[in-house]
Amino acid sequence: MSVNNQLREWYPFVGPFDPCPPIIVKTYVVPPNQYIPYQPMNLPQFPLDQALKLGTLWPALFSPYESKCGTGGPRP
């Protein structure tokens, strides 16, 4: 497990009498700010137009969001 990988896996307990089909592996995201305890000087920065699209000025704090709901198109 590397520090740069933000997606982590968790293997929950699966009981023999669970009423629903078990989810063997669950995933969660660890935000990158957990690894930067203070803001170092002279961090590289995104250009302002790109920073507005990505939601952060600093590449070290960027965490992409990937939807698990499907294509992300309009809902009916």
Automatic annotation (TrEMBL):
Under the heading Pfam families, the entry gives: CotJA (PF11007)
InterPro entries, alphabetically? Spore_coat_CotJA
Q: Which domain of life is it from?
A: Bacteria
Protein name as it appears in the record: Spore coat associated protein CotJA
Q: Which organism is it from?
A: Paenibacillus aurantiacus
* Source lineage: Bacteria, Bacillati, Bacillota, Bacilli, Bacillales
